[in-house]
Specification:
The chain is of the alpha/beta class and 363 residues long. The chain contains 13 helices and 12 strands. Helices cover 37% and strands 18% of the residues. A 10-stranded mixed β-sheet has the order 1-2-3-4-7-8-9-10-11-12. It is elongated. The chain binds iron/sulfur cluster. Iron/sulfur cluster binds at residues 121, 123-125, 128, 130-131, 174-176, 209, 350. Iron/sulfur cluster binds next to loops.
């Protein structure tokens, strides 16, 4: 697999000890390492030249030894005012996506970043454009974190006064996060840490197709991240049709791992269920789903009406089917939400912009 072209280590992702060592190597003093951390994680500024309270000589010495941003924004796609999708070209030319979702809930607007963890994806889900491309490579922790800097720049550019900052993070972009767990955990440590971006773990959601052993490893990492599992079907046969990796894992092993996650973290697990017209949206499916979750310790179901992907052969469900499915789950005592907007904006759309861009020449 190709590696990023810049061989200088990145300052993005370093913890305070790493930054102290970097500053020392560049001839700086310990307090300047704290200033560097403030710029990077407090102000979300990655440009060394803009770090005005660091002496120019130190900035140059740091730049000679270390890099910061290795990715560049090569395109943006807005869907109304609510969603902005950024296409980012990595140092080795691969393209990933990061999505900013804005929700205005009166006094408390939400700014959610949907970030990618891999270029492409090995899971091959039929409803997903990334899955059809296959895995190009895992993202380094720094590359996962760089998406936050691009979001910060976007929010700064469009702010009239003081720029808002993200309120929530969903690891639901391109790639299967738990397939790149080591780098994901390194990145989320920075996202969560007081010295880092300082997001409470409860504002961070990790979404997975369900890799049972990796779910347990995530639980053992000691954070209280929200876990969302893409279920999408109620029988193994049906699920393997949509998510080929289910053949090796199977629904019952995934549910058992999810229950372990709940027991270890006390965080409610969310099951994502994309309703595909005529495929998994029947009353029988609703009954089976309710039965599967009957014994599950506290959980939520997010129903996401399918957003058609060209060439997938999968259909949008009818409004009547969505309504009936929701009602049957509720009647069975399942905590359920219908997420139309997510379906429209992000889910199943990942990778489509990248598909267009990878055909274009590098800039
Ligand atoms: S839905 Fe997620 S896990 Fe499945 S192929 Fe797409 S990016 Fe990978």
């Amino acid at each position: 697999m190709a590696q990023p072209a810049d061989i200088r280590p990145s300052l993005i992702g370093m913890d305070p000890a790493g930054l102290a060592a970097a500053v020392q190597a560049a001839g700086g003093k310990p307090f300047q390492a704290r200033q560097l951390g403030q710029w990077l994680y407090g102000k979300r500024v990655a440009d060394l030249a803009a770090m005005s309270n660091l002496p120019r000589g130190l900035r140059e010495a740091l730049a000679a030894r270390f890099c910061t941003l290795t990715s560049t924004v090569i395109a943006r796609e807005d869907s109304g005012e609510a969603t902005t999708k950024l296409a980012l070209r990595l140092a080795d030319g691969l393209v990933i996506e990061a999505v900013l979702m804005r929700e205005d809930e009166g006094d408390a607007p939400r700014y959610t970043a949907c970030i990618s963890t891999q270029a492409g994806c090995a899971m091959g889900c039929r409803f997903c454009a990334s899955g059809r491309l296959g895995l190009k490579r895992h993202l380094e922790a720094g590359e996962i974190l760089e998406q936050f800097f691009h979001m910060a720049a976007l929010l700064r550019d469009e702010a009239k006064g003081e720029a808002p900052w993200l309120t929530n993070v969903v690891v639901m972009g391109m790639g299967e996060p738990l397939h790149n767990l080591a780098n994901l955990l390194k990145a989320l440590e920075v996202v969560n840490a007081e010295w880092g971006f300082h997001f409470g773990a409860r504002r961070i959601t990790v979404s997975t197709v369900g890799l049972p052993e990796r779910i347990r490893e995530l639980a053992q990492a000691g954070y209280q991240f929200n876990l969302a599992i893409s279920l999408h079907a109620t029988t193994d046969e049906q699920r393997t049709e949509l998510i080929p990796t289910n053949k090796a894992t199977g629904l019952s092993a995934i549910l058992a791992a999810a229950a372990d996650y709940f027991r270890a973290t006390r965080r409610e697990v969310t099951f994502e269920y994309t309703l595909v017209g005529g495929q998994n949206d029947t009353p029988k499916d609703a009954e089976r789903l309710a039965a599967l979750l009957l014994e599950f310790p506290r959980c939520n179901v997010n129903l996401i009406p399918m957003n058609p992907v060209e060439g997938s052969g999968l259909k949008e469900p009818t409004a009547e089917a969505v309504e009936l499915f929701t009602r049957l789950l509720r009647e069975a005592g399942v905590n359920v939400h219908v997420r139309r907007k997510r379906g429209r904006r992000v889910q199943a759309a990942c990778g489509q912009l990248r598909l267009k861009l990878e055909a274009a020449p590098a800039q």
